Each structure stands twice: as C-alpha cells, then as structure tokens.
Amino acid sequence: MTDTTRRWRVPGSGEAVSHLTRNDRFSAILVVIVTLTAISLGLVIRQRNVSQVWGYASREAGIEAAYPAGWLSDEEGPYLVRLRDPKSRPFKTQITITIMPASSSSSVRNVLDALTIQRSVDLPAYRVLNITERSSGGLNFTEMDFAFVNADPNPFAQILPVVVLGTDLVIIDGDRAIVATFMDEQSTYPENLPVFQRFFASLRY
C-alpha cells in the first residue's frame, strides 16, 4: 500500500487511520497559501489606494492641500472648494474649505455662530454637539462637532433619511477665517475621519 492510497478505519480495530492522501494534504495547504496571499495582496492594494493623493490649490486664496485620489472637486457653491468621495452612498463623504471674513474684533465664536445660524436653516435637525479649543504642531484652532439629518426632498424617493456627523476646524488667519469641514454618514464617520485629519495636516495657507 503506497502513501497515496486511502486508508480506512477497520471496524473493531483500534488502529487510527488517515482519510487524506498526500495529494489531499497538498491541495489543502495550497488553498490556505493562495487565500493568505490574496488577502495580503488586497490589503497592500487598499493601503496604496488610501495613501494616493491629489493636490488642490487656489492661487486667489493662497491655499493648498492634498486630498484622496479619485475624489471629485467643485468650486460652484458657497465654499472655496468641496471634495467628495463618488463611491460613498447614500450620503457622499465630503470635505469643504470655506473662507469667512474676520477681523481683530471678531472671535472664532462669531464664525461658529454664523455657521450655526445658516445651517439651522439649510440642514434638517441641525445640532451642535461640541466645541473644543485644540492645538497641533504649533497650530491653534477650534473644533466644532455637529450632526444633522440628510433627507431627500423628493417625497417619492425610496431613500431613508440618514444621520450625518460633521466636524469644523476653524483657523483665524488675519482678516479671514479658514473653515475646513468634514461630513460623513454616522456609520462610516469614525472609519473615514483619518482621511480628514490627513487633509487638515496637509493644509497650507
């Protein structure tokens, strides 16, 4: 009897016999190796895609930043630029930069109050969750966390409303306030927040 011949337990005997041939064992090991290799390759590709960035620059505003490759940008709204992930659903993960007037007599709180008043009109169930003074890399800024409900205005739409979480980071730069804002669906906000943190770290003005 060779190693490649199947052996069976003989009824009534105490001999423990194998049901796997050498080829069976080789195939099982090969499947494990291929699976682990595929998983590792997928993680490498995902990490590479996450780390790839495109550059945004506004000569007029003197602002530059790096954002995730593949995101869409537009400058057609009440903001300097809006960057959105086209693959996110139902609410598109987005980052905006807004320039607001400021002066030596105005405070960050004045800027935040203006944002809150406008959003209370535009965004259903808008609520400010937290306001915190922060510092990073020698830069002082103010963080405001907020939430609202995103609902399709079309009454015939089959999309359920979703809770959106957002974060404003406000920098006073001379006679202007630079507001970097991140908004994402509640369920994916923690996962995607590092994208915004890297964006803010790359901001130059």
Features:
3 helices, disordered N terminus, Protein Transport Mog1p, Chain A, 205 residues, alpha+beta
Helix content: 25-40%
Q: Total domains, how many? A: 2
* Major beta sheet, strand line-up: 3-4-5-9-8-7-6
Topology pattern, helix = H, strand = E? HEEEEEHEEEEH
The CATH topology of the largest domain is given as Protein Transport Mog1p, Chain A
First-residue to last-residue Cα separation: 79 Å
| The CATH H-level homologous superfamily of the largest domain | Mog1/PsbP, alpha/beta/alpha sandwich
The total of beta strands comes to 9
Query: Major beta sheet, specifics?
Result: 7 strands, antiparallel
Name the beta content range.
Answer: 25-35%
The CATH architecture assignment of the largest domain turns out to be 3-Layer(aba) Sandwich
Task: Write down the CATH class of the largest domain.
Answer: Alpha Beta
Low-confidence stretches: 1-8, 42-49
Number of helices: 3
Radius of gyration: 27 Å
Compute the average pLDDT: 85
Question: Structural class, judged by helices and strands?
Answer: alpha+beta
Global shape? elongated
